Each structure stands twice: as structure tokens, then as C-alpha cells.
TrEMBL record:
PROSITE patterns reported for this sequence: SAM_MT_RSMB_NOP (PS51686)
Biased segments, Acidic residues type: 1-11
Annotated organism of origin: Mantoniella antarctica
Active-site positions on this chain: 63 (nucleophile)
Molecular function GO labels: RNA binding; RNA methyltransferase activity
Family designation: Belongs to the class I-like SAM-binding methyltransferase superfamily. RsmB/NOP family.
InterPro entries per UniProt: MeTrfase_RsmB-F_NOP2_dom, RCMT, SAM-dependent_MTases_sf
Name listed for the protein in its UniProt record: SAM-dependent MTase RsmB/NOP-type domain-containing protein
Biological process (GO), any one: rRNA base methylation
Region (Disordered): 1-24
Domain SAM-dependent MTase RsmB/NOP-type: 1-133
Keywords, in A-Z order: Methyltransferase, RNA-binding, S-adenosyl-L-methionine, Transferase
SUPFAM superfamilies assigned: S-adenosyl-L-methionine-dependent methyltransferases
Amino acid sequence: GGDESGDDAEVPAEGGVVDAEGQPASAVDAAEARVVKLAQFQARALSHALKFPSAERISYSTCSIHALENELVIKEVLPEAVKLGYTLEAAVPAWHRRGMEGVLAPGAAHALLRADQFEDDMEGFFVAIFVRPPPPGARKAAKAAAAAAA
């Protein structure tokens, strides 16, 4: 723990700065920087996938407990997804734990699935499913292409 100033870092006897869990501050900073970089990449990859013209359903999942890689990635790409005709579909509707409230609108948060490593007796996990109707004529064109290939 820290002092009453609310600072979570303390100086141990050997002189290095550690966080509240006793990890060296430099390791914590490196881990946080890694999560930020992963989240930035994940948002770019998801945004790219949403632009595929024939995509109707895109699943985004992580084995992460970090909102930065989960709800905040969805929050970042959701406006673009909506412009492209996507909505969020409830992932495994019977599952009890949904997305974190307060990051997204309640309806969007409810569509997200989250597993907590401590409370659900499993690894942390997150799922978001984007769906949109097929573009006009897409199914007919796909059937025609399949028939021509047969």
C-alpha cells in the first residue's frame, strides 16, 4: 500500500519503486504500454475486418480482462461499425456476466460477454459480435457462383 496521499507506489528498503502489488514500477509501466499497443492493434484489425464488403458477422474475442482491450476497443470502433450497418448481437445470451457498464451504452454493454478469472472459475475472456444484413443481391450472387463452380 501507499501512504495517505493516495499514491500506490512505495519505496522499499532496497530503494526501487514498486506498485501496490509489489511489482517494480518499470515492469508495471512496460506491461501497461504493452496492453495499450495490443489494444491499438486490435482496434485497427477489427476496423479493417468490418470493412470487408461481404462480411455479415464478425466476432471479436480476447482472453483479456483489461477493459482497454475489450470494451474500449468496441467503443472505439462502434461508431464506424454502425455507419457500415452493423449492430452488436448478444454473445451467448444465457451467460450471466456482460460488458462493463459505464463504458458503453447499457444496451451495447449487455450485448458483450465477459468472463472473470476469479468469479467465474475460468480464464478471463471477452466476446463481442457484430452483425449486419447481407448487401442486396449478395446471397443470390453467392449461390450463382457456387452453382457455376459445381
